[in-house]
Amino acid sequence: MTRLRVAYNLACRHNAVLSVVFITSPVRTYAGTEGRTISVGFTSQVEDIAAEKSKRVEYEFRQWCKLHDVRYEWTMVEGEHIKILTQLSHYHDLAIVSQSDPQNLEEMLFAELPDQLAMVGSCPVIVLPHGQRRMVLGRRILVAWKETVECSRAVRSAIPFLQQAEAVTLVSREGGREAARSLERIANTLRLHDIEPAVRAPQHGARAAEGRVLEYARESRADMIVMGGSGNSRLRELVLGGGTRRLLTNANIPILMSH
């Protein structure tokens, strides 16, 4: 329900249309369980549980929308989460998902990780930290800058948030003099949008800067990070990890990301 609350608040703040998609997974048939093991009754029971949960969430969602003049739409669909979300990302301005649950073995086994949308979707994505029920985001924003197409897209997508923020801090995900010059360039770009960021000089060494993004966020008391996804191979990023995957896994505040 955290995703719903955050999406609802953002829709009110930005006068947006709120689109809620409730996705149910098809009943899985694991290797060696075909035949009589998966009965029609069991399949029906799983579908009934999903339908009941959908009705409960939909009722609460519609009750919230009645309190304010918020335009919305509700859709329930069955299928693979990441496939459906990727398709829908072509037709929306922003997607809101949650970090994967590290205790959910089925998600990990079948790689149905909602935060993968930040790597494969076509619209910017806000990834909410797992397990936090209530949060306020967008008051104090950390922009983790790197001179890449992905990061540039993320910053452009975040301009409405940056313009409303109380404080914006710019840090570099790389080190060295060129990173410092690039940081000043993006600061000047933001100033053209009436955003006055605090610029933090980059540390020496790209790895040190990349690994300290979450530390920078804590020091600046940020409630949201804006950053681009990795420019590496998607397969390599998802399977082998990397700075982007580590940040998505370990962040305890929302991340707005574009790829």
Topology:
Elements: H1 2-14, E1 18-24, H2 40-67, E2 72-78, H3 81-89, E3 95-98, H4 105-110, H5 117-120, E4 125-128, E5 140-145, H6 149-164, E6 167-172, H7 177-191, E7 198-199, H8 206-211, H9 213-219, E8 224-228, H10 234-240, H11 243-250, E9 255-258
Parallel strand pairs: 1-2, 3-4, 5-6, 5-8, 6-7, 8-9
Antiparallel strand pairs: 4-9
Assembly context of the chains: single chain
CATH superfamily of the largest domain: HUPs
Q: Structural class from helices and strands?
A: alpha/beta
Q: Numbering strands along the chain, what is their spatial order in the largest sheet?
A: 3-4-9-8-5-6-7
Question: Could you describe the 3D structure shown?
Answer:
- This protein is α/β, with parallel strands linked by helices and 259 residues long.
- The chain has 2 domains: 2-79, Rossmann fold, CATH 3.40.50.620; 140-258, Rossmann fold (3-Layer(aba) Sandwich), CATH 3.40.50.620.
- 46% of the residues lie in helices and 17% in strands.
- The protein has 11 helices and 9 strands.
- It has helices spanning 2-14, 40-67, 81-89, 105-110, 117-120, 149-164, 177-191, 206-211, 213-219, 234-240, 243-250, and strands spanning 18-24, 72-78, 95-98, 125-128, 140-145, 167-172, 198-199, 224-228, 255-258.
- Strands 3-4-9-8-5-6-7 form a 7-stranded mixed beta sheet, sandwiched between helices.
- α7 links the parallel β6 (167-172) and β7 (198-199).
- It is globular and about 65 Å long.
- The chain starts with a helix and ends with a strand.
- Mean pLDDT is 80; it is low at 108-112 and 235-241.
